[in-house]
Amino acid sequence: MTVVWSDLLAALALLLVIEGVIPFVNPQALRRMLATMNQLDDRSLRIAGLVSMVMGVVMLYVVR
User: Fold this and answer.
1) Is the pLDDT of residue 1 over 70?
2) Is 29 in contact with 36 (CB distance < 8 Å)?
């Protein structure tokens, strides 16, 4: 399997676009979300991160 750098860069660019949507559209909602996340314990944040990673891997598997 060869690594295609253009695919990786395209994925990173898409990540930046998606991450920029919420602060652009509704910055107040982002502030509320970050304040809520700040109150979560480490275990909850780790579980949310794990779920996010697993969903990403599953989506990548389905797409590819």
Assistant:
1) no
2) no
The domain ranges of the chain are 5-63
Per residue in 8-41, pLDDT tens?
Answer: 899 999 999 999 999 999 999 999 999 999 999 9
pLDDT at 22: 93
Please check whether residue 9 is in contact with residue 2, taking contact to mean a CB–CB distance below 8 angstroms: no
One DSSP character per residue, the chain reads ----HHHHHHHHHHHHHHHHHHHHH-HHHHHHHHHHHHHS-HHHHHHHHHHHHHHHHHHHHHH-
d(CA 26, CA 21): 8
Residue 3 in this model has a pLDDT that exceeds 80: no
